[in-house]
Amino acid sequence: MTCYLCFCSSSSHTEQKMTGVGLRYLTETLLDKMGIVYVWWYYVGCGGGMQIFSGMAIKCALGLFDMFFSQCLGLCCWCFYDYEIEHTLSLSLFPLLLLRPLGTRLHILHSLRKLWQMAAENTKVFNDPIHGHVEMHPLLVRFMDTPQFQRLRHIKQLGGAYFVFPGASHNRFEHSIGVGYLAGRLVQELSERQPELLISSRDILCVQIAGLCHDLGHGPFSHMFDSMFIPKMHPKSKWKHENASLAMFDHLVSVNALEPVMKDHGLVLPDDLVFIKEQIAGPQNTVPLRQGWPYEGRPEEKSFLYEIVANKMSGIDVDKWDYFARDCYHLGIPNNFDYHRFLKFARVCEVDGKKQICTREKEVGNLYDMFHTRNYLHRKAYQHKVGHIIETMITEAFIKAEPHIQIQGSEGKMFTISTAIYDMEAYTKLTDHVFEQILYSSSSELAEARKILHNITCRNLYKNMGQTQAKKRVEVSQEQLQKWASELATCRPESDLQGVTLEPGDFVVNIINMDWGMKEKNPINNMRFYCKNTPTKTTRISRDQVSQMLPDQFAEQLIRVYFKKRDEKTVEAAKINYVKWCMDNNFSKPQDGDSIAPELTPLKRSWFHNDDENDDEEDSQGGRSRAAVNIGQQKAKARLF
Q1: Where is the region Disordered (predicted)?
Q2: What is the pLDDT of residue 548?
Q3: CA-to-CA distance for 111 and 25, rounded, in angstroms?
């Protein structure tokens, strides 16, 4: 019997996939099983045709196919067609690798059949408002068509910000699709630009799955759930949504029986499952398996793959690329970062013995724009004072509803809103819809929670007393926040406040930490850059080399105080307490409040002076400044006392 395997020039997309992609998957999978180096495949379109380059790759491929076809089917003849060109390669050029066991031959034929069917599967195209027409691999579509992933349609990307920005109605679902798409774009760019990296189709598929599934663990209203609600319900818990993403990923694969499907698409389990989860939440083992290398899914030679979805080194990853573009689009805020340029100049270089994703030196300004966009989004949208007040109110409503909301989980067990995080069957049913469940309930047990949510819909919100800052960053616990609330209720001047009584429960103190993604550090310091003429050598670029106008500090902490009551007399008393509380704790002058009177602020000399004034200027204006301070103090004290 003679078997012909042909690579044909054709305008048919299906034929190209059958001949090119299918054989690539097949060859890589079989070489994987035999411990042979991956084959590098290059497709060059010419009238729809494809050519394959690299002599060693052809020898490996032909030797492999000749090996099992000669044993299973008899004589094998290889032909390459390109309309007018036909080359028949002599089998004598390639030594026969004998595979005598029948089981091995049958396994290879089974793999051939499965992978050939896989290559014939059509990808699915999604019309995304940010990235255009996004093409998704069939295996990714299988992950998407599950209840666990579809749940993300009902979780707002920006939580309470939707109550402030009418356009911010997008959900975690579309963001996850975007991250999966961009993850594939970046890893494919690296594979085509640097074939010596030996990036396999398995690698590409695993990176895409990690991007697609990285946010499976988000709860109702996204970050409100894991940064506000859970810390109040479980103060000692270190739970994060990344932990839930891993648990939900395992649950998704298990209940939807996706392991056989993953194997059919060329993935090797459990190694690739571990690799996917490591990309989402970091190393799974506390003790490094290899000296200096904590990851199990891929060896250190492929360390750069861990920088694509969630970059723990510099914070430059496709997750940010998508939510910058998507959030700016829906918020109506300009996006100054262009990820397309990063894709064009991304390159893997060796840095301190490890392979790291680097970019051209001229792109450093683009990266600073990226982190500036991040900071701008936090200030204008993510930490918007009204959005934050609404999330605070939703959190309080959830806390009051906690004992009375029951969610059925695995084996018929019942869970509350906060305990559902420990059972993925129950957690799958927990989305933003719990807001409407409480709001439209008729249960008397949910009356208090329902009233809070009703106030949100009627815009009867807590009052913002303002925000201040401590001299140094402080680590604040739930106990400290409660202590501050008690101080605010009792921190009054020695005067009669017309019988107004303030309770600790009337005040809400929130801590907001804003940075460039790496706390006090400049993330660009962890990035390496290469030059056009020396692409294999990298260097750091300091902040001073870029611009003298870049920030000196990359993190700050804000202390915001909200007041629950709304009557004018009580609010007036609360704001006086708040100003005195800031003075007693040596905090900065309060700013950005709803109702802080200007006359109340110049009570401290440091609040009156501009911190940037130099000593000479202060000396020359000392008398005038002191007089102004005294006048301001007299006005304020007249109101305080």
Answers
A1: 591-641
A2: 72
A3: 10
CA–CA distances in Å: residue 512 to residues 382, 394, 606? 10, 17, 23
Q: Which residue has the higher pLDDT, 285 or 445?
A: 445
DSSP 263-300: HHTT--TTHHHHHHHHHHHS-S-SS-SBTTB--SSS-G
Alpha-carbon distances of 304 from 191, 270, 343, 347, rounded to whole Å: 12, 21, 14, 10
pLDDT confidence of residue 46:
36
Number of Cβ atoms within 10 Å of the Cβ of 336: 14
| Cα distance between residue 17 and residue 30, in whole Å | 18
Mean per-residue pLDDT, 99-109: 58
> What DSSP letter does each residue of 520-574 carry, written as one string?
TS-GGGG--EE-SS-TT-EE---HHHH-TTS-S--EEEEEEEEE----HHHHHHH
Could you check whether the bond before residue 270 is cis, i.e. omega within 30 degrees of 0? yes
Say if CB 19 and CB 6 are below 8 A apart. yes
Please count the other Cβ atoms lying within 10 Å of the Cβ belonging to residue 95: 11
pLDDT digits (tens, 9 = 90+) for 543-595: 778 777 777 778 889 999 999 999 998 998 899 899 999 999 999 988 866 54
Contact 209, 265 (CB under 8 A): no
Residues 296-309 have a mean pLDDT of: 96
Cα maximum dimension of the chain: 106
Return the pLDDT at 12.
38
pLDDT tens, residue by residue, 65-95: 544 444 444 333 333 333 333 333 333 333 3
* Secondary structure E strands in 9-118: 76-82, 85-89
- Cβ contacts of 373 within 8 Å, gap of 6 or more: 324, 328, 335, 336, 337
Helix axes 241-255, 201-213, angle to 10 degrees: 120
| Secondary structure (3-state) at 1 | coil
By the 8 A CB rule, do 78 and 19 touch?
no
The CB density around residue 193, as the number of other CB atoms within 10 Å, is 15
Answer with the residue of higher pLDDT: 56 or 298: 298
17 against 542, higher pLDDT: 542
- Rounded-to-integer distance, Cα 468 and Cα 36, Å: 62
State the catalytic residues: 241
Q: What φ, ψ does residue 587 adopt, rounded to 5°?
A: -85, 170
Percent of the chain with pLDDT over 90: 58
Provide DSSP, 471-500: SS-----HHHHHHHHHHHHH---SS--TT-
CB atoms within 10 A of CB 246: 18
Higher local confidence (pLDDT), 250 or 59: 250
Residues in the chain: 641
How many whole angstroms separate alpha carbon 216 and alpha carbon 219?
9
Phi, psi of 617 (to 5 degrees): -65, -40
Residue type, 36: I
**The model's pTM:** 0.79
Cα–Cα distance, 314 to 518 (Å, whole number)? 8
Give the containing element (helix H, strand E) for 90.
none
**C-alpha dihedral sign at 495, 500, 501, 506:** negative
Q: How high is the pLDDT of residue 543? A: 79
